[in-house]
């Protein structure tokens, strides 16, 4: 198929299947068109984690339209098989792997329905961005690259199994439930890394920590004044890849504002809503509180002092941080009792957040971390959700137990669940020996061979396929899991050339 016909064929086929919203025409003209056209088509399909029915149907239709073997497993993972091109039949079979779901985050002032709308993209210099939402380049660009390989007519490659997993972002249940024996490939290329000069050979595992409690609300005292407190303007980001950057956590900042509030101003919490997803550093938190009216002036003055201190501490990493206090006309009828509030704010202050330990085996690699991702409090119920990560299994559980202890001491029921393993590095990988010199040949420098502090599906897939050689790489994507997510156009070209060269140089069986 001619390159100029590629866009037209894709567009005409898919626009009958899905509803297009605003999308810059520039996206369709980006090079390599095979990659960006498929990404645009994919991004028009709503694909939140745990609601992948539409994108699963989309990718199955894509494979069937190409006349390829397509099947869906018991949990909705999709596998598409494509035979080797002429002369490549004696090479080892390849699994190209990416996940179909994406993180759904938007700015508070962005009107957008992720369940019905396609992502609204535009070009900004070398970057492709979305209008006020996550872009879905994680892992949409990897999926689009696989789609481009599947429909290619002139690229040399061995036999390919394209594995599209579901629910990577909120549990990795697709990878966890992939049955042994379904895949026939000997080498797996995971296309979910976000720096184009890195080749990943290992990653962290993760575990969810959830603390919940109930409390008896009490009547709001007389002579009270109500305020809303809003923390916003934080960058947010990936709770693994970005955890070392010293970014602000809206839930921890809010707790700092409330910490001594009762002792100083008679402050009592009515409700708190902060953060949204475990794997996203929380960007916003909103609380409704009351104070004793007699302390109104002192409260405003002291809070501005604390705000000034926090902004000064975070001025380099969070220059757009805003903390807004607004007096409310309607005073909440019920509030959290002082003693319950005392234990809550102290447990939140005690709970670890951010980098917990750096790796002793890899330079500049975070070993263990935690993200206090989501806090909901009100109407007599409290919930705190965390995601703990580590490349060392024992350290992962140790930090989870530290968090458990902090919240159990305030009377919470704590559930530790959703554990998934890390991916142990294999520096002697055969495919690594292929990729390193190919990268150097194409780019004039050696790649960084690293392990990352994100969760990749390789470690889980390796449980049922222990003999499969695995590697991970991808284009440069910044700000993943936040509305600041953006993908480099130049890097996508570099990534595509690398992928095409790898497929042409897969070892013989």
Short structural summary:
This protein has 14 helices and 25 strands. It is of the alpha+beta class and 509 residues long.
Structural account:
This is Cytosol non-specific dipeptidase. GO terms for molecular function: metal ion binding; metallodipeptidase activity. One of its GO terms (cellular component) is cytosol. It catalyses: Hydrolysis of dipeptides, preferentially hydrophobic dipeptides including prolyl amino acids. It is an enzyme of class 3 (hydrolase). There is one protein chain. The chain contains 14 helices and 25 strands. The protein is an alpha+beta fold and 509 residues long. The protein has two domains: 3-203 and 423-504, Zn peptidases (Aminopeptidase, 3-Layer(aba) Sandwich), CATH 3.40.630; 207-420, 2-Layer Sandwich (Alpha-Beta Plaits). The strands form six sheets. Strands 9, 11, 13, 15, 16, 18, 19, 20 and 21 form a nine-stranded antiparallel beta sheet that branches. The chain has a six-stranded mixed beta sheet with strand order 1-2-6-3-7-23, with helices on one face. Helix 1 (3-15) runs parallel beside helix 3 (33-43) and helix 12 (430-443) packs across helix 14. The chain is elongated.
Cα-atom radius of gyration: 25 Å
Domain module count: 2
Instruction: List unreliable stretches of 5+ residues.
Output: 1-21
Please state roughly what percent of the residues sit in beta strands, choosing from under 5%, 5-15%, 15-25%, 25-35%, 35-45% or over 45%. 25-35%
Give the second-level CATH assignment, the architecture of the largest domain. 3-Layer(aba) Sandwich
CATH topology of the largest domain: Aminopeptidase
Total of helices: 14
Structural class comes to alpha+beta
Q: What is the level 1 CATH name of the largest domain?
A: Alpha Beta
Overall outline = elongated
- Helix-residue proportion: 25-40%
Mean pLDDT: 93
């Amino acid at each position: 198929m001619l390159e100029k016909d590629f866009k037209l064929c894709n567009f005409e086929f898919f626009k009958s299947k899905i509803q297009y919203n605003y999308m810059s025409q520039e996206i369709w003209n980006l090079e390599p068109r095979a990659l960006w056209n498929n990404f645009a088509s994919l991004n028009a399909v709503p694909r939140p984690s745990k609601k992948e029915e539409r994108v699963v149907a989309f990718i199955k239709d894509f494979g069937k339209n190409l006349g390829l073997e397509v099947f869906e497993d018991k949990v909705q993972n999709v596998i598409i098989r494509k035979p080797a091109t002429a002369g490549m039949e004696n090479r080892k079979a390849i699994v190209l792997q990416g996940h179909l779901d994406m993180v759904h985050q938007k700015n508070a002032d962005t009107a957008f329905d992720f369940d019905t709308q396609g992502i609204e993209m535009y070009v900004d210099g070398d970057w492709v961005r979305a209008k006020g939402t996550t872009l879905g380049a994680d892992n949409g660009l990897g999926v689009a690259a696989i789609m481009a390989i599947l429909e290619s007519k002139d690229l040399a490659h061995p036999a390919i199994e394209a594995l599209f997993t579901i629910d990577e972002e909120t549990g990795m249940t697709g990878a966890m439930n992939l049955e042994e024996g379904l895949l026939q490939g000997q080498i797996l290329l995971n296309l979910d890394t976000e720096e184009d000069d890195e080749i990943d050979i290992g990653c962290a595992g993760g575990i969810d920590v959830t603390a919940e409690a109930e409390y008896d609300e009490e009547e709001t005292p007389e002579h009270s004044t109500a305020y809303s407190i809003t923390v916003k303007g934080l960058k947010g980001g990936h709770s693994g890849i970005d955890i070392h950057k010293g970014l602000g956590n809206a839930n921890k900042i809010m707790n700092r504002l409330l910490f001594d509030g009762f002792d100083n101003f008679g402050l009592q919490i009515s409700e708190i809503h902060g953060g949204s997803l475990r794997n996203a550093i929380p960007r916003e938190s909103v609380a409704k509180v009351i104070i004793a009216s007699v302390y109104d002036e002192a409260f405003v003055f002291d809070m501005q002092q604390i705000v000034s201190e926090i902004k000064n501490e975070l001025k380099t990493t969070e220059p757009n941080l805003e903390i807004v206090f607004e007096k409310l006309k309607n005073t909440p009828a019920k509030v959290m009792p002082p003693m319950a509030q005392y234990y809550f704010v102290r447990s939140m202050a005690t709970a670890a957040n951010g980098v917990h330990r750096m790796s002793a085996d890899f330079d500049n690699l975070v070993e263990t971390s935690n993200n206090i991702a989501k806090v909901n409090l009100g109407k007599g119920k409290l919930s705190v959700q965390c995601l703990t990560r580590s490349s060392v299994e024992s350290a992962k559980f140790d930090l989870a137990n530290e968090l458990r202890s902090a919240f159990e001491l305030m009377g919470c029921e704590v559930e530790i669940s959703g554990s998934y393993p890390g991916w142990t590095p294999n520096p002697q990988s055969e495919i690594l020996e292929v990729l390193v010199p190919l990268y150097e040949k194409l780019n004039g420098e050696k790649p960084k061979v690293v392990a990352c502090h994100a969760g990749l599906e390789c470690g889980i897939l390796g449980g049922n396929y222990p003999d499969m050689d695995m590697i991970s790489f991808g284009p440069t994507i910044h700000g993943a899991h936040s509305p600041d997510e953006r993908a480099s156009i130049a890097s996508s070209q570099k990534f595509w050339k690398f992928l095409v060269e790898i497929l042409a140089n897969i070892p013989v069986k």
